[in-house]
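Task 17 of the worksheet. Students: predict the tertiary structure of the chain below and write it out as structure tokens. Keep your answer in the requested format; marks are given for formatting as well as content.
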Amino acid sequence: MPLSLYIIVAVSYALAGCYVLYILYFLLGFRRLKAPALKEDADLPPLSVLICARNEEAVIETCVRSVFAQDYPGDKFRVLVVNDRSEDRTAQILEKLAAEFPSLKLLHLNSCPKGISPKKHAIARGLEYCDTEFILATDADARHDPQWLRSYASLCNEKLGAATGLSLFRKDEFRSAWERTWQSMQTLEALSHNVVIAGAMMNGFVITANGNNMMYRKSLFNSNTALKNNVVTGDDSDIVYEAQSRGYDVLFNAHPASVVRLEPESGIGAVVNQRVRWASHVMKATLPVRILGLSVFLFYLSTLLLPFLAFADSAVLYWWGGLWLIKAACDFAYMSFTLHKFRIPYNFGHLFLMELVHALFIVWVGLAGTFGRFTWKGTEYQKTMKP
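Model answer:
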């Protein structure tokens, strides 16, 4: 092979070596993950549950009812729903629920200041009405186990700054075998992020959190640094970075009851748009997270581009096959181990199909999240708000 091809292949395999080390690092952390022992009623702290909702008429009632069905002393938790400028029946449904549940508090927002992320504005306004030290955050499309609150309360101590748990896309009915397949693939892809977050977090390396399933201290917001208001997404990352910067522990809740179940996107285009939105704040993360993300991105990119170099020398195909096998072996091993530990069943065939398109999918959404646009709640955004 020409020298230039040797250099490209060598760099690709150096990136592959980094990927192997990352997987081993995450695996070592994940092996230490243990579910907390649940506290008795007398030892449970008071908690607030904060839900931000915009145009969620189809799911908000199920979410609120699952929170009020908690196995938690009724006098020790309260629920606040921030209705963020909804244009559907969300407000009416919430008013009906408030009449049924006296401890449900509502905050209706009619506007959002220019240049500020609507989601982060809703969170900040909601926090003004929360008077407990620890706050549970979830989304309007989430469904909760009856011991969800108790599992998080059992983590609370003076050292804890934030905690997050597993978020699982769940759909019970499918219109076709194809829909069942691609929905399973998107569930596995989302779970791959969750289990990486868990493994890294157990090593003290905070990548991000699940904003639909997390707990944090209210005191993290006693300054203006906890939320980057001009960045559209990433409130979950902002909060855990703030907790870590203040010297608090940031934990992953491994209790089975901590898992929230979410409504998946209904179309492949919507899935891509969602992942672009998730990726849009990566370059606003901490430096170690950006280095991790960039090196993984370049490794995935090399698995896509190397075959095209075979036009210059067909021997490149052997090296490309080695790259693909390294990635596949790492991914299958880590996903199999972590999903087994969480007792989440999966279809190996769907995992194999997901692996075939995974690198292309991640490269695409990474580029689109960094340089493109996405739609969220009916509005088109780039990663930062215009002043």
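Marker's comment: The chain has two domains: 3-29+287-381, 36-281. The longest helix spans residues 3-31.
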